[in-house]
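CORE FACILITY INTAKE
Project code: CF-77B
Contact: R.S. (postdoc)
Sample description: multi-component assembly, two entities in total
Requested service: structural model of the whole complex
Turnaround: standard
Below are the sequence entries exactly as provided by the requester. Do not edit them.
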Amino acid sequence: MWKTIIRRVLIMIPQLFILSLLIFILAKQMPGDPFTGLITPETDPNVLEEMRIKAGFYDPWYVQYYNWIANAAQGDFGQSYTYKKPVADIIGARGLNTLLLSLLSVILVYLIAIPLGVLAGRYQESFLDKSIVLYSFISYAIPTFVLSLIFVYVFGYRLMWFPTSGTVDISLDAGTWEYYWSRFYHLLLPAITYALLGTTGIIQYLRTEIIDAKTMDYVKTARSKGIPMKKVYSRHIFRNSLLPIAAFLGFTITGLLSGSIFIETVFGYQGMGKLFIDSILSRDYSVITALVMLFGFLALLGSLLSDIILSIVDPRIRID
Amino acid sequence: MMKKKGLMLSSVFATALVLAACGGDDTETTNEKPVEKEGTATEDTKNDGATTAEAPTLPEEVTNDGEVIQGGTLKFALVTDTPFSGVLLAELYENGYDADIMDFMTNSIFATDGDFLITDEGIAKLDVDADNNKVTVTIQHDVKWSDGTPLTADDVIYAYEIIGHPDYTGIRFDADFQNIIGATEYKSGKADSISGIKKIDDKTVEISMTKVSPAIYSGGDGLWGYAAPKHYLETTPVKDLISSPQVRKAPVTLGAFKLDKLIDGESVQFVANEHYWKGKPKLDKVVLQVVPPTSIGEALRTGQYDMASSYPTNQYDGVKDLENLTVLARPELAYSYIGFKLGKWDKAAGDAGLNITDENAKMNDAKLRQAVAYAMDIEQVGERFYQGLRSRATSLIPPAFASFHDNTLEGYNYDPEKAKALLEEAGYKDVDGDGIREDKNGEKFAIRLASMSGSDTDEAIVEYYRQNWKAVGLDVQLTTGRLIEFNSFYDKVKADDPEIDMFMAAWGTGTNPSPLGLYGEASAFNYSRFVTPELQTLLADIDSKEAIDAGYRADAFRKWEEYMFEQATTVPMYFRTEIIPVNKRVKQYNVNYANDSMDNLHLLEVTAEDPIK
């Protein structure tokens, strides 16, 4: 198994290299540059021109690429043109925000989806099952930004149960209990929105697996041994039905950092998704490339993790 | 307050996915009015010629009844989809939102009047000795920084030394700044100080310049309008300033409020600056928060904020009838225009490039251009699509410049008959009888228009104008066949793309009305590429020494505007009205450029603990 893991990690290097080349060239192909938005009639075009020269925008692409990759290899992704800060600092701060939001969302997803999936599978064709299936189809069909807008409008502005933007109330001092509560409170509404939209896959997989499992031989054996139905579900069926969910766990873990553009935009939450779209719109090359590299790395890592997890939980699967 | 922000504008300032579905039923749900709402507003419209012509129904000032409370916290929404950068030093920032934040604690040392010209009312006064190309900046009051240290001439000079420093990488070391004698030598490291800047005494600084023009009063010619706290910043090397906590986390400032706490890209808390030179502010705190344009209407309706940095005009419907706020309005420092491509930018010519007008350019016929302008029903568009918040622009100087904007200019009013007559005269006749005019040689004639995409109404507006043009027999096609995204649009316009005959764009003018930077021979932003000796003379006259006399200058502006009207190479389309909703618990607020409440933040008061819902 270790051999496989090392091999997979080594393959990542050329994969990431190709990704870096692609994203670098594509990013530079976008019309405009980070200085386009700085133009006022009072801005001296010569100053902007000089800034472009200093930033190396007129060098041949392979020179620019070499400079970038050489620094990136040492962990230096450069300065953001928009924020005038090292890219790593920005991604660090935004990453933490996104991580917190995603963690809470994922916990909520599992809390909602697993019981619903199990119930739907167990009481197949019942009214409960049909309601759950209907819910999961609706939540699958509804666009993220629509639900976010509805939620922020209803629960934020109309009922005023939740704060509508930001990550924390600025009047509180960091470190106090109120401060952490405020952070959590700010997370809740976006996390619930995220969670309600993210349950479909898990509900459907669980439901199907449980329905399939009901007819399996091992269930019949267990029943004929006289084990109560309740126990058959909780001990035998449930564990087996979780396998496909475990298969996604790797992606779920690495996906914690990718953020959601829509939810973060609507809730004014400063996370990775918003950072990504903002950097594209403002042509903040250094942030764009660093983020794509990070997302690419996470996706590769996610697939590896998923394979490893699967091999642990399902003894029939062996990686070698 | 002098601002050098303002941008190459996209077709709408803020494009937003609006909470539209939810906006319609506002009236029926606002019935839970809190008790403190007995103070119904007495609105007090200030009449001010130029501005009322634009948005006659909206006042510039509001005074609300109600008992003022002691202290209080003002809640301010910074309306943006992108977070602010947090570079909180006037010399270094490049992001307009950072400027909005700095407004509360500004280091600005000059006060300005309704034309954005420097007056004697500020921390410092300006004396101009035009004959000797010298200016003197004198600190008039005993002013202290927010940490209690007195403001001195050294702080005024230090601001110049930051911008002029060899390690400075920002956008402010420009041609203007190099007008200061010795700035270039200091920049290249050949000199230890800027030789043209002399400290006379602790309160006085003398600055020698290569030339002094009327722009000096708008903060041009290299004059810098801010002080930088030398005692606080000098220990940090200039190249590290931008990432230093002195700039980002705990700036020392001169304004009414000082920074207390900041959450990156998200919110800022200010507290009253007890050392403020005009007196300690009446409010205890100001809390500023980033709010996406999508929800600002709702946020204001539900009383989460007292006011907003800006409000998307296309969401005006969402606030206009709300009872908990007053919508104030003022003209924006901007105009939209339609430009005609008449030549090319030659990078190699002159010192750093020149505009070269091409005699044979397709659109090089003043009558044709005038006809295009007369054919457009701009008023209708302003009313229908912008709820009257855009009005037909009559000249290239927006009405925000109270005494330079000339109310008597007519501009191109909607007159299709005149357009047709002009086209006939110029020889554009419909030869084959298909309703579309052919060119002077009887060949098929289509004009290619480049226009920006932005809001959902942009498409409809452009279509409307195309019908206008068709009605006078002009076939107008879109460059690339559709609206063009902001960045690509300016890329194409800048590069004089041969696919563009005319283009719709907008300029934020900044506070200096001088048109040289946009229409000069050596100006890369002169996107029409239109240059004539007459135009050069007219432009030079506006910025000449004689024009330091305001009357002379107004006259020079008028001559230039009339010339531009005749030539019609850049046709002004809209003047824009900026709307500023203010919650009714704010005792008094004024958005008039001459008496802007943002310049007198220490006087702000509120009549309730929280904004009225």
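Facility notes:
- The domain at 92-283 of chain A is CATH 1.10.3720.10 (MetI-like fold).
- The radius of gyration of chain A is 24 Å.
Invoice: internal transfer
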